[in-house]
Amino acid sequence: MNKSEDIKLLVSRFMEGETSLDEEKVLYRYFNSGEVDAELLPLKEMFCSLSLLNEPEQKAECTPKRTRRIPMYKTLLGMVASIALLLAVGSMVWHGQQQDYCEAYVYGKHVTDQQQVMKEISGTLQDLHQNEATDVDNQLHDIFN
User: Fold this and answer.
1) What tens digit of pLDDT does each residue of 62-80 get?
2) Residue 77 C-alpha from the chain's centroid
3) Which residues of the chain have pLDDT under 70?
4) Residue ranges of the domains in the chain?
5) What's the Cα-to-Cα distance from 58 to each of 38, 51, 54, 61, rounded to whole Å?
6) What string of DSSP letters covers 87-128?
7) pTM exceeding 0.85
């Protein structure tokens, strides 16, 4: 018999509950090695987990090794967070400045003089107060007809 068939026989005896502790250790070592037969790969995780229960020092062999992508992911996440923070602070500074200009279109003319714009607004509000009988719907109706 070759090693693969011996392992398959041990696996079937293990499933029947007929293996000794030494035979189980052989199975645990086999499944913790990197040379597991393709036919037995579905059982690898189960035997790795069982070996951890019996022999905790094999934990390093059984757990998969992590790739170097995690530090890169953290670095990229940190860069994105920094850029978002800079954009937030920049927008607060940009919009926090008080606007010192006034802009309106009065009778089709572009007006930027604050006193003139306020004068036209006051006049319009007074006209609306004087014509209390007319409401906004009537005014819109008059404009669009």
Assistant:
1) 555 555 556 777 888 888 9
2) 10
3) 1, 55-70, 95-101, 131-137
4) 3-62, 104-144
5) 22, 7, 9, 5
6) HHHHHHHHHHSPP----EEETTEEE--HHHHHHHHHHHHHHH
7) no
